[in-house]
Specification:
The protein has about 550 residues and is an alpha/beta fold. It contains 19 helices and 20 strands. Strand 12 and strand 13 form a beta hairpin.
Length: about 550
């Protein structure tokens, strides 16, 4: 056994590593790859049968050869630095169209934002009745945001800046006004001040609401943080399609970790994390214990608290999470569909390939989004339900078999907003799932020239190719408490000026109250979405600590 005093509490039958990673989502895989490449002995424990967590592809429909990105759809926040550092073979395909939004107040009218044709986009603004200078105001609003995000993006894979340091970066980029608008007051104020049209305002506001149950004017600014994260990726805010599906991203991270020497165990259910870096888990029908000077938690902070409580002797409770954001509920329904072809639109001036080529917004005007929030807050499923649709197969047909491609089949993944977890219980989950699926289909049909139900492919089992996931379904499938896709609420990618930054873990935004346990997933500061940033930053904290690799003899 190693002479490292941090290992002294381990049972003699346990195995010792330099780091144990609990949870094999994409962040855990990234941390494993970085630490293993640096010569550390790493054990990664994943409860499910395969690594990847929510960043996986799956054959969602029995007997149908289509691999859908089941829980996460697009990539924006994965830094090129991480791709290069780990030698990942990942292709991200850029979408020409930013968004398509039918106007619920005018049948057959819609706003198409075409990244490749500013003139056509300006004409589309005019077609939905936007004021004369609305397109210019829209363009200027996002230009200011881009100056801010280009200044802040490089900090995401560096030690945390303070608020003053981040503000100075923004000022240096000419984005001080945008900094104040995004970080100092509700983002709804800035949107309402810059833009006049109900539909145009809604298109912008959606970036503040994905996965976040909030209103435009909420004073806690959680919607502002969500807005910043949706625009900061790459500095540009582009959301790209992972070629081969989301599973190709986590698959490459797994390959990098294994080739670097990490030990990855799947179907390994961690049951407790005890003091001194002792991790207990079940694998292959037996109980096991491993120990390390570092435990990296690629699980939600709430789940980490549960595991730590289970690992304490005498039933003494470990300190609960001190971050109230970690307790925030999820607020979405996810629906995957496989269609015979793209549907015809009420708006016959736009080809379906263009409308579905970006993010398709449905019933997401400014006023509709607020009405939906108020309905959900009162305990009802919003009608109409605000929805966003992504058609992965248009940009990346490789997720479909050659036969499905030849037949013209397409996938749709729908993200329904303002469906807070408080509406779902174990007793009503099946009923709510059916109600939410019906609400999603009704929302889609409100902008289509034909019923979406008629276009659903049927599997060999006779069932239509559609699946719906409530917040409870997501929690049960991939361990996200209350179905929160960010493992809890998001935090600013900087800290307040008086925040202690004395340790590597604090400086990298991955600290817990136990100096041996680090957050390495979406629950870390600068977590959320498919980014690998949480894993990168936790690994950097370990390496910066200077803890030497365990002696080869410490492995039992």
């Amino acid at each position: 056994m190693s002479s490292n005093p941090l290992l002294s509490t381990a049972p003699s039958s346990s195995k010792a590593y330099d780091a144990i990673i609990v949870g094999g989502g994409h962040n855990g895989l990234a941390a494993a790859a970085y630490l293993s490449k640096a010569g550390r002995r790493v054990l990664l424990l994943e409860k499910l049968e395969q690594p990847g967590g929510a960043a996986v592809s799956a054959r969602a429909f029995d007997g149908v050869d289509a691999r859908l990105s089941r829980y996460s759809y697009l990539v924006s926040l994965l830094p090129q630095q991480i791709i290069d550092d780990l030698g990942l073979c990942i292709r991200l395909a850029r979408r020409r169209y930013s968004s398509y939004t039918p106007d619920p107040g005018g049948a057959g009218r819609a706003l198409l934002v075409d990244n490749g044709d500013a003139t056509a986009t300006a004409a589309s603004f005019a077609a939905v009745g936007a004021p004369e200078h609305e397109f210019q105001a829209f363009t200027e609003f996002y230009a200011g945001c881009r100056r801010l995000t280009e200044a802040l993006w490089p900090t995401m894979t560096a030690p945390l800046p303070t608020r003053s340091e981040a503000r100075a970066l923004a000022a240096g980029a000419g984005a001080e006004d945008t900094w104040d608008a995004v970080t100092g007051r509700p983002i709804g104020d800035a949107i309402a001040s810059a833009l006049q049209h109900d539909l145009v305002r809604g298109v912008v506001l959606t970036d503040a609401l994905i996965g976040t149950f909030a209103r435009a004017g909420d004073e806690d600014l959680q919607q502002n943080i969500c807005f910043l994260y949706h625009l900061i990726g790459g500095g540009t805010g582009d959301w790209d399609v992972p070629v081969g599906g989301m599973g190709a991203v986590s698959g490459e991270l797994e390959r990098a970790a294994r080739e670097a020497g990490a030990t990855i165990l799947t179907s390994a259910d961690v049951t407790a994390i005890g003091p001194g870096g002792v991790v207990s888990y079940r694998h292959a029908g037996a109980e096991h214990t491993a120990t390390a000077p570092w435990v990296l938690a690629n699980v939600a902070p709430v789940v980490l608290d549960r595991l730590r409580n289970a690992g304490r002797e005498g039933g003494a409770a470990a300190p609960a999470t001190r971050n109230p954001n970690h307790l925030r509920e999820g607020a979405q329904v996810k629906v995957n569909l496989l269609l015979k072809r793209l549907p015809r639109l009420l708006d016959d001036r736009v080809a379906p390939e263009a409308a579905f080529g970006g993010t398709f917004h449905i019933n997401e005007t400014w006023s509709q989004l607020d009405a939906a929030y108020l309905a959900a807050e009162a305990g009802a499923i919003p009608h109409p339900l605000p929805c966003e649709i992504y058609c992965h197969s248009l940009t990346d047909p490789s997720i479909l078999s050659p036969e499905l491609q030849a037949a013209g089949a397409q996938t749709l993944t729908v993200f329904g907003l303002h469906v807070p977890d408080r509406l779902i219980t174990a007793d009503n989950n099946d009923q709510r799932r059916a109600e939410l699926q019906a609400a999603v289909l009704a929302s889609l049909n409100s902008v289509l020239a034909e019923p979406i139900e008629d276009l659903l492919l049927t599997g060999p089992d006779g069932n239509p190719c559609i699946e719906t996931k409530t917040t409870l379904d997501i929690e049960r499938a991939v361990g996200m408490p209350r179905g929160n896709i960010f493992h809890g609420g998001l935090d600013w990618p900087f800290v307040e000026d008086n925040t202690p930054l004395d340790t590597p873990a604090q400086r990298w935004g991955v600290a817990t109250d136990d100096p041996q346990i680090l957050l390495c997933g979406s629950g870390a500061r600068r977590g959320g979405a498919v980014s690998a940033i949480g894993g990168h930053n936790a690994a950097m904290a370990v390496l910066e600590s200077g803890t030497p690799a365990a002696h080869p003899g410490s492995l039992g």
